[in-house]
Each structure stands twice: as structure tokens, then as C-alpha cells.
Amino acid sequence: MDLIELHGTLATLWIVWFFVLFTGIAVWALRPARRQSFDAARQIPLRDAE
Predict the structure, then answer these.
(1) Gap between the Cα atoms of 45 and 10, Å rounded
(2) What is the DSSP string of 28-45?
(3) 36-45 pLDDT per residue, tens
């Protein structure tokens, strides 16, 4: 296996890893259990300064 073949293999593995990571983060963030914390964070800019 020379450097050119290794580059192709690593590029393919990087794309697969990125897709799996992105999908995992999206599933984690969009779970119904996280809705309450996102609703609270959404209101932060609208709070009055104390």
C-alpha cells in the first residue's frame, strides 16, 4: 500500500466518521428529553438585565 492508496482510504474513512458523528449529535440534540433545556436556553437573550 503506497501513500496514494492510503490517502484514498483515509479520506473515505474520514467521511464515514464525520457522517456518524454528525448523525449522533443530531439524534442527541433532537431527543424529546432535551426540549426543556433548549426552551430555557432560547429565552436567555429575551431576559431583562438585572
Answers:
(1) 42
(2) HHTSGGGHHHHHHHHTGG
(3) 888 899 999 8
